[in-house]
Amino acid sequence: MDCETVREDIEPHTLGALDNAATRRMEAHLRTCTACRDLARAYTLTADQLALAVPVVKAPPRLKERVLGGVGAFRPNVTPATLVRTSRWWAAAAVLFLAFGIGAVVWAFTLSVQVNDLKDANAAFADLAQKDAEQRTTLLHLQSQLSTAQSQQRVLESTLVDQATLLGLAVEGDLIPTELQGTTVAPDAQCRYIWSTRQSLGGLFCQKLPAISFAITYQLWAVRGDKVVSMGSFMPRPDGSALLLYKPSGESGGGPITNLLVTWESASQIARQPSAEVVLERTLPQQASR
Amino acid sequence: MSYLDADEPLGILRRRWGVNVNRGAESQDSEAGDRPLDYVTAGDDRLVLLLAGRDVRALEALYDRYGDYVYSVSLRVVGDAQLAEDIAQEVFLRLWRRPDLFDAGRGRFVTWLLSVARNKAIDERRSRGRRFRHENPPGFASEDLPAVTEDPVDSALLADDRIVIQKALALLPAEQRLAIQLAYFGGYTQQEIAEGLKQPLGTVKTRIRLGLQKLRAVLIEQRDGR
Do B89 and A45 touch (CB under 8 A)? Predict the structure, then answer.
């Protein structure tokens, strides 16, 4: 492209009115031709004046905020419209996400409150259960103490009855005591049988009886003529003493008692006849009443 | 001295001292010494130099001065307020990022800045392709600029310059003025203008050539006559 051809297009070139191919040819020439470049520059200055002819419109105030915000001077209140358009979906998604997030937080908070309430309730129930267990334990302990007291009361009452009976036996004037002495299986054992005709009551008092298994019991026998009759069984106390009261029934006939003996019998069954294991027997040939 | 030559000494001063001798307030900057800079009265070139140091107040001052003009040129080209706003923002951000692109020796800052806005708007208009052009065909009366306008904006800053160019345009024959404006503000090629106006290509070329030559002559004449 020569200078003459170029200068025919220099004015439209400065206005940007050449097509792409012509523009490329023009620029290639201007890079190498100072005269044409200076002319193009002069017309460019003229063309640039055209922008001043545009009626001036007041720019929106937000434009300044956008410009200064864009360089970090301050945060813009308004974002570019293209950005606004493209970010609407993101904003909607963010709002939804935020809503879900808030909902999740509220839900989690509600659950947390409910869990805490349940924990408090469980703790209260645990306290109540513990107090109930303690009260039950206390009640059982009290019941045990009551049972022990009742048992002791019964023992005491029984002892009082025995002592009253013995006191009655002791003050009676018609007592005929019968002494029993331990045999070879219990040589230290001693018993005394006292009968009160007025009270129609007999009592056997023993000492130094050997301890026996729980499966065995002592049993007192009375010999009436040719019959041997059981007068009762008894267990020795830990100190070896023992007491047996005997009140004969109305049909316990058979003649007067001619002898007394104590045997060891099985505790699991009622013995009808004395076994061969005699523990104590009468020492003197005395006449026992009834 | 020609129009072109008349700018050269000023350009040298601008390059060397950062002083805009076209504006009275600029000459005070070189005498200011260590006094705090008054951004309102500081010269354009001085403010552009400050941009290299990331002086946000300089950018703000330049925006306060020319923001409406940049926006107006962009709006004139694309015809869409939102798009014009985007373009104007991009122009100032580009100025912030690359203030060195302005060569004070090749013209006034404001004409350079407005040409940047116009080029950016033309690019945006062209990038929107055939559909945009089809909806905004050349030849519409709206492409023509009013002869002399009473701006709603207080544009006393460039009032003289604006009156000069508007009067120069008014002196052109209507068909030449329209062809120039279709090319400059519409971004149309000569071929497109010819098709849009249903005129021979040669006729459009002649109108553009003669119109711009006359415009240049009038501007030089008016400038020398001041």
Answer: no
